[in-house]
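Why Amino acid permease? Reviewers of the renewal asked for a concrete example.
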Amino acid sequence: MSDTGHVITPTPPHPRVLGWFGTSALAMGGSNQMIFIIGALFIGQGTILGQGSAAVPLLIVGVLLGWAAAPAWTELVLMWPNRVGGISAACAEAFRPYNPVLSVLTGTCYWWGWIPTCGLTALLSAAAFQHWYFPHLPVEPFAICIVLLFTFVNLCGIKWVARLAIPIATASATLAFLSGLIPIFAGEVDWQQAFTFHLTTPFEGWFGDLTSVMAGLYLIGFTAPAFEAAASHVGETKDPNRNVPRAMLASAFMAGIYFILLPVVWLGVLGPGALGRDLATVLGPTFAPLLGNFAKAAAIWFIVLNMFHGTLQPLAGAARTMSQLADDGLLPRFLSLRIAKTDCPWAATSLTAAVAIIFLLMGDPIWMIAAANFTYLIGICMPNIAAWLLRRDMPHAERPYRAPRGTIMLGVFAAGVWLVSAILGFQQFGLPTVVFGLFLAYSGAALYAWRVIEDRRREGLPALAQTLHVKLTGAMVLVLVLDGIAYLLAVNTVSTTHHPELVSVLADIFVVVALLTISVGLVLPGMITYSAKEVSAAAKRLTSGTLNDFSVAMRALGRGDLDAAHASVNIVPVKPNSNDELGEMADNFNVMQERVKDAAYGLDEARENMRKARAELLARHAEIAHLAHHDPLTNLPNRTLLAAELTEVFDRAKSRGESFAVLTVDLDHFKEANDVFGHVVGDELLCAIARRLEVAANGSFVARIGGDEFTLISAIREQPLAAQALANRLLQAVSTPFDIQGQHIPIGLSIGAAVYPNDGADTFALLANADAALYRAKESGRRTVRFFDPDLDRRLRDRFALQLDLRSALDRKELLLYYQPQAKIDGRVFGFEALARWNHPTRGMVPPTEFITLAEQNGTIVEIGAWALREACREAASWREPLQISVNLSPIQFRYGDLASLVHLALLDTGLSPDRLELEITEGVIFDDPSRALSVLRRLKSLGVKIAMDDFGTGYASMSSLQSFPFDKIKIDRSFVSSIETNAQSAVIVRSIIGLGEALRIPVIAEGVETEAERSILWQEGCTEIQGFLVGHPMPISAYVGIVDGDGSNHHAAQAG
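Here is what the prediction returned.
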């Protein structure tokens, strides 16, 4: 963990014990906020003015804002259904790219906002009991007891909290309905009075009106708990995707009752003066028409039950906010301590109760409630911003509930209204309230610093890191301090009596700067350092992971260690959070990571191809596992007894000079029969097959080595005829289908045979070679026998070893170029053809017919071809004579990479003139992928190089090839030239090709000219160019130095060679 970034750990699941009704009952602890906030709104407290009867429309506006924000809140909390703590605790992932302190600030502000509610409602409950039932009961101790009682219930688990909340909610909701509906049906509501509103202002003028309205809106931020409290227990709710939205709807409905219906009805029945007094003493008339003498008791218990809600909810909801953030690694560790049996966060719950008691003992004055509401507004505004950020930054994230179209921005609008009310209304509550509110807001940063220091000390690091983020944030905090000092100096120089509006403006400016400090001082440094750390962490992960593995893998591949030739791909894209230079840096880094990933996947593909080739050899030498001496199902000897018998027969045959055969037998399609008819039928089928094999073996040793595999050992006199006869008997024995439990089941055999001593010098080799032959029998279509072929086995081994060596031949500089001259018909050399040769360190010169084909099969021809091209161009560019150089291109080179660019770079790097380079291709290049090949050939032609058709006449569409592309030269294949003297058809073909070239005005060169007679015939037929041993053998260019340096350009190359 660091102070600039934090990864939110997965939340462990909580016991899901709440239904939607229990969640809704707990949320009633938010609707009751109206009970104690309405008095503050109507008459205020002390020097703090209220808003008069205008408080009613302000309450309605507050409910509308809550309704506007609710869909976004629901979407937000359900994105992480295992979390608890409500909307503020759900912001952690949204704010992670910007600054984890924002998550802490949101959560702690939310928590502080609920603290006065817990203590104040306990005070009001205790006061009601003292006033009506226990006049000698001390209020504050009794209020503390109420807090402690509900704390105890919370420690027993959320299930017990819900059991207590449901009857309280049911009773208080019933009384709320009665208080609102009884006066309406009784005709007791003065509707004119109910809709007559008067606004109390702190000073004259429009700014005084605006300040009063904003102060009211500021306080009615406490309407939001009626909605968001239902989201505090998502991780503890059964089927949250269904039940949480239902609870939110139920809470919204109850908010309408408490914040719209009741204030309007009460104002119409009781008048504005009564609503500023103790509601328990004035609400009786709303119940009286129906309840009569019980109206007073109903009013008292309506207040008491709602106050019980207000005490219970913070201990259950807000406490879980703190514990959730501690679980996320954002708050001190002790806050995540839980009671294992009840899953209750006892430390956070106890802290909530303790602070609530402290506030209670202070009397929970209105200025303290206002300070707490400032933090609460931050706690409910930021989740709307988080929901909007998640829509922008994580549009494809899973959202079990998706807010309706437009409601996300509606929530952002509600957050904006709350913030404006905080700016313009907070200052009315006085300087101490402003300072105290800011202290509470910034306490989250201190708690986060506590956790950072705690974690760094656990890791053995210094308490604070000297990072850019710490420096930037510290500077912004200093700005806030200087702003506060400037505010105090300015206020002290202005008369509050003569210029109250100026003092209000100064206070508003101070609040704005404080909020800007939160946004700029926390968000901007967080974004900068987050982007830098993301790139730094990704680079470190790349260099220590994939790139390091890639380096190790390439070395392992070079030495043939396929298991180690693997580069793990651990690439996480860096997500840019801005469109500036930091975003561009992140984008470029992501491109680099993608290129590294592609290279790693290419390495794995090459490794797997080699592994398959190796597995083809190693699969034949699998060891036979040892079991018991006899198979319990068929009573045949098993693998262990087979090994002993084979050793005995081998020793006897070796000492006596005898011969014997080992046959491995496999049942064709037995698995399918076993799956279709069941294991019982399959077992009986195996027993029946074993009996037939024993009869057909005629005394030979038969063993079942597992599954549907059998092995036979038989002495033979005439090999391999006797072994063939035995195999035929076995095949015949099972040719008749088996009748098992009424099922007609056909079964065939695949047999592999190995004969001693030709096919193995020991028992292991015999078994392995018989098994290899069995593999060939299966590949040949099953129901047949195949004998071990040592030549095939040896060829496979040699081929694989050669393939491994070829991959490193270029790096070891084992490949070289030989040059064969090309001459006019009179012997004058005009160019050379570059031919690759492989000087193997142990095999010597490997024929091109062996390694070129192998290179084309495994793809290394691309690298070899590129090397040959560059080397030939480099060599030709160094000659004094401007002779032509011809280079062969493989069809594989046309499929992979950019061949035209390769040729262009080779010409640029070596300085060779394009008209001196001739590229030879076969017609297979065109017909493998015509459109791609022709496109590449046209690009090559545009470079100025020549294109020759090699081996003309050997393919199936030579004429079509000439029609598809304007070739610069035709090469007559050596197979026609070598038989031109003795084969009339070859002579006709050669004559036709030469004639075709003349007709199309394409030069023709004959390959493989070895005798004067062949040259003479070609001359007579009109061929102008030849190549072959008659002109010169392929040799290093040093053998032709006289020609290339211009000392004997008119000499025959054969003389030079």
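The chain has 42 helices and 16 strands. This is the kind of structural detail the renewal will allow us to pursue systematically.
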